[in-house]
Hints:
The complex is a heterodimer. Chain A is built from 21 helices and 24 strands. In chain A, the strands form two sheets. Chain A has a 22-stranded mixed beta sheet, covered by helices on one side. Chain A has a two-stranded parallel sheet with strand order 5-7. By secondary structure, chain A is of the alpha/beta class. The radius of gyration of chain A is 25 Å and the shape is globular. Chain A starts with 6 loop residues before the first helix and ends with a strand. By secondary structure, chain B is an alpha+beta fold. Helix content of chain B is 22%, strand content 16%. Chain B has helices at 7-14, 54-57, 59-62, 88-91, 119-122, 137-145, 202-209, 223-230, 281-292, 294-304, 346-352, 371-376, and strands at residues 20-21, 25-26, 31-36, 68-75, 80-81, 84-85, 100-107, 249-250, 253-254, 259-264, 271-274, 327-333, 338-340, 353-360. In chain B, the strands form five sheets. A five-stranded mixed beta sheet of chain B has the order 11-10-14-12-13. A three-stranded mixed beta sheet of chain B has the order 3-4-7. A two-stranded antiparallel sheet of chain B has the order 1-6. In chain B, strand 8 (249-250) and strand 9 form a beta hairpin. In chain B, helix 9 packs across helix 10. The longest helix of chain B has 12 residues, at 281-292. Chain B is globular and about 70 Å long. Residues 1-39, 42-192, 212-255, 295-319 and 369-383 of chain B have low confidence and may be disordered. At the A-B interface, loops of A face helix 1, helix 4, helix 7, helix 8 and strand 9 of B. Chain A: Pathway: Protein modification; protein ubiquitination.
Amino acid sequence: MAYSFPEEVLEHVFSFLSSDRDRNAVSLVCKSWYDIERWCRRRIFVGNCYAVSPEMVIRRFPELRAVEMKGKPHFADFNLVPEGWGAYAYPWIAAMAEAYPFLEEIKLKRMVVTDDTLELISKSCKNFKLLVLTSCEGFTTDGLASIAANCRHLRELDLRESEVEELSGHWLSHFPDSCTSLVSLNISCLGSEVSFSILERLVARSPNLRTLRLNRAVPLERLANLIRRAPQLVELGTGAYSAEIRSDTFSNLADAFSACKQLKALSGFWDVVPSYLPAMYSVCSGITSLNLSYAAIPSTDLVKLISQCQNLQRLWVMDYIEDSGLDVLAASCKDLQELRVFPSDPFGAEPNVSLTEQGLVSVSEGCPKLESVLYFCRQMSNAALIAIAKNRPNFIRFRLCIIDPQAPDYLTLEPLDAGFGAIVEKCKELRRLSMTGLLTDRVFKYIGSHAKKLEMLSIAFAGDSDLGLHHVLSGCDSLRKLEIRDCPFGDKALLANAAKLETMRSLWMSSCSVSFGACKLLAQKMPRLNVEVIDERGPPDSRPESCSVERVYVYRTVASRQRLDMPDFVWTLDEDSSLRYS
Amino acid sequence: MSQKINHKQWSLQQKSKLRWVRGTHFGEIYNVVVAHKPDKGGHLPTKLTHFSFLFTHHCPHLKGKKDRVFMQIGLLGGGGLFTMSSSEESYSYPDESDLELGLGLSLGGGKTKTKTKHLVAAGGGGSWDHYARILTAKDFAGVVSDKTSSSSSSSSSSSSITKVNTSGTKRTAESPCSPPGRSAIRFSYGSSQVVGWPPVRTYRMISMSNQVKSPVTEQLFSIDDKCKSKNADTPNPNHGSCKNNNISKENGFAKTSLFVKVNIDGVAIGRKVDLNAHTCYEALSRALDDMFMPSASVGGRGSNMEKQSSVAGKRQPVRFHDGSSDFVLTYEDKDGDWMLVGDVPWEIFLSSVRRLRIMRTTDAKGLAPGSQERNRRRPVTPL
Lengths: 582, 383
């Protein structure tokens, strides 16, 4: 068209669009915009590695620089997905290494990454800068060694909570002396020792280092030296925070901390000796993020620490903080946005700490900016939940886990329907919700009618009938991810809402009442859904069709529904409507 | 979990549309009884003798009927979990159905604090202490006839309900679908955990468990006293009683999990076991039996249910230490050496074990001195 902008101008305009949603919207305007946009897109996010194939991505976006991808469903974190299910990174990396020689960033979550994969990245992508592996597994320290050795411009190596087979601690020495580009290093998930002198030298020659998260094997005595070499640190994860109580160790540490004027985030704190906590006091006023979720610190010491951190925005802590500590938090940290309270003794029969619903109520009352909560406790009441909802209608994420998954309101012994109902009704911006406790279909009715912005819902041991599931699927307009375990939901709701499933990323149901027949029917009805029956009891067609499947994972996909890496306990429908399994 | 709940309340909620029964937290199921209110013809179903057949064989009897089902689970304390369920699909509840599931727990052996009056008390079954017996219709005759008018039908059995804790184990709602060996129960490996519950990431549990407890913190914990008084009658775990006690107070901190890998010769894929869920070698050995010799243990347990007269030491499943099995349990210690399990006190074992391996006896000859002799000795006694 004569009056259209030259491509270069459009490209320049599009370069200001960073959000995927915006870019996707732009590419739908017309064919030429689609074409221009795809050539200038540099970053993509693939929420489900099986929703699309590497070839399709490469064909559409020929000039990517950064890829972020997720593999296994969330419930894999709790061992609900059998080993070997899939989510292998290699096919993606192999295709992309060839297509994108200038690839700079790879972020993977819950995927299986092998040493070969890491080696391939390190050798093919000359400009490789950033590797973040969250909850990944399948690689060893040899793979890390290749990354260290070959990626000349490496800026970030972040192994968040991945499972690494540690063959040796020497991989760190593979960083060449010429490597001075490190900005972020997170090795907190590694169990074994790395050479301290190598670590110190690496830190010393990395002037841009902002984030350093050590592993437990780095003793407290060494911490001071490391910090001293990097006073510009913004985020620090300590190693084991324990040592014999000695005043010289203490003052050494305190001095080192006081030199870090930019420190904003602290984590680590394994094996804490509370007497050493005051060494950090000098930085507390600047701290916005504090992760004490591995720290067994008594409430009194926690309180002393937290009351120094007036600018705290994010706190992850164990239930040792108790209600009394949360009261102090509510009083001191008015900027608090996110709180996570983890159980110190999740399998104990009796509570070991005095942490109840009251703590959460206090924090919701005292912290006006609180929007994200993950809270493990042993008792809850509708009254408390209603109070919390009234206090804090600005919740975006609300995840409550009562240790006994079907605990009723401990005061009235009623289901917690009313409480959670209040949460979804008052918190209109709620995007993520996890519920536990005694819950009937009623709570799902509330969710379906009120939770219009809800994107992710996790349900366990709840509901009475298919009606519950139906309420959710038919009512939650923004739902993207639904994960359900041990609920009496079955075929009817699923089949009645088949079309809804295509608007979502995925649906996980395990130990529910979905029959094999329904899975087949769903797959037949919806050609763009992959219905994976994950069942370790042998071929589903060796049992009657009405038999429930152990797990079903449904996700939309434009790739083939017969992924080639299916293990023998995963079944999907073959294109000719017969059962196919590998 | 051993808190009582008000069963009357519970069953009122569940009355008209019972869908789920909460499982209970207990050590080993050794018996289950299901009793029915007699139907119009005065017939009762045949008694159950094996819990694993509960849903595979008896569910059809419940379909559409106005029945009251009581389940009596004998337990021994400690930690396995199970779940039972009935789903709408298999029972096709019409509105008039009035199925109630009452869960009665009789705690055997007095090993936990929970006191319950047993449903079976009505039938005079006082000797639940060390074993269970199968209750027959006669036992329930008195009980059943009391309930005609009560809407909360299990209220007279309310005392027998203790706190129940659900598990997320495999369940088969349709009876014929589950192959015989695959029961509706799935024990996790002898510990008190349900698969994936509570939803704490494995990474976190392993990190927590591997922490060294600082000696300095001993006096800092005020809850130490609280917990000590609560657990006053808990057997001292250091004496190796085989109660699976998940709370052992060391330095005032509750112990979390200590997962180590376990491999068995001949199987490529290993498992993980939580050593802190056990208090002695006996318990660990039993747990590993369950994990690796399921056919022996479950089947053995099933057929021996009625005959079982004691918890420890008399089970048929393969044992590791008494030389009667083809396998022997070994571990790799901090120095990388492979040792025979059972040679050192339990606590020392815990602090030095890195991983376990179940070796064939023939391969274990090169182990710690005296290992062969060990194999021929009596079973390991708790220390």
